[in-house]
Amino acid sequence: MSLIKFRTSWRDDDTIYRDIEILSGSTYFELHTTIKLAWQFPADMEASIYVSNNQWKKERQIDSTVEKNLRDAAALSMKKTPIGALVVDPHQKFLYECVHPKAWVLLIELLTLDEEPMRIDLYPRCSRTEGISPTQLGVVPTQKDSVMEIEERYDLHKDEEGFGDEGEEGESDSDTEESFGEDFAEEI
Predict the structure, then answer these.
(1) For residue 176, what are the CA distances in angstroms to 162, 165, 170, 181, 182?
(2) Mean pLDDT in residue range 56-73
(3) Rg (CA), the chain
(4) Do the bridges between strand 105-114 and strand 93-99 make them parallel or antiparallel, or are there none, so unpaired?
(5) Beta bridge partners of 18
(6) Is the pLDDT of residue 37 over 70?
(7) Rounded Cα gap, residues 41 and 28, in angstroms
């Protein structure tokens, strides 16, 4: 079993991505679950993964709602299909389409194919995160992003409450500047 590293990027902005490491013997359902966690998608969301060519055209479908792989079926089962079975090209690409009102689409590209790792219990996992997930309704992020941390740290929403011309004590900005200047002059 080898270790496969995929980059899942948001179709609308390829600077937003998640790198996912998974074993070739894992199923597409495990990849689907890891993608949902990494992108903070709803846990009960269904999706389809399509084998793609280099121009991102859909080919074979792997669906999260299909239970069995049947001969000549329109879609394969995510739960029954191992990832290694459909990785035939070192530059293999897939499309991930969410069954959700927002209809998010992710591009999945094979980055590396390595030997079996020493500790297989660590996989699947998201190894790198870049950018903020697409806006979601009703989903609370599991971790704060840097923009939220800055807003909370510096409380950037206070200017709505009166950081305009008046200081905390009811003094205008010009009074505050003058008193600072006087204090500074006395120290010299």
Answers:
(1) 16, 11, 10, 9, 10
(2) 89
(3) 25
(4) antiparallel
(5) 8, 129
(6) yes
(7) 16
56: left (phi over 0), alpha (psi -120 to 50) or beta: left
Residue 101, exposed/middle/buried by CB under 10 A (0-12, 13-18, 19+)?
exposed
Please state, in angstroms and rounded to a whole number, the distance separating the CA atoms of residues 22 and 57. 24
Cα separation, 164 vs 139, in Å, equals 34
CB 62, CB 76: distance < 8 Å: yes
Catalogue the E-assigned strands of the chain. 3-10, 13-23, 46-52, 58-63, 75-77, 93-99, 105-114, 125-130
How many Å apart are CA 37 and CA 7, to the nearest integer?
14
Strands 46-52 and 93-99: antiparallel
Among 139, 88, 108, CA closest to 11 = 108
Tell how strand 58-63 and strand 75-77 pair up: parallel
- The structure's pTM equals 0.70
Mean pLDDT, range 177-185, rounded to an integer: 48
- Both tokens of 60, joined, read 């074979």
User: 4 and 24 in contact (C-beta within 8 Å)?
Assistant: yes
Sheet holding 125-130, edge to edge: 75-77, 58-63, 46-52, 93-99, 105-114, 3-10, 13-23, 125-130
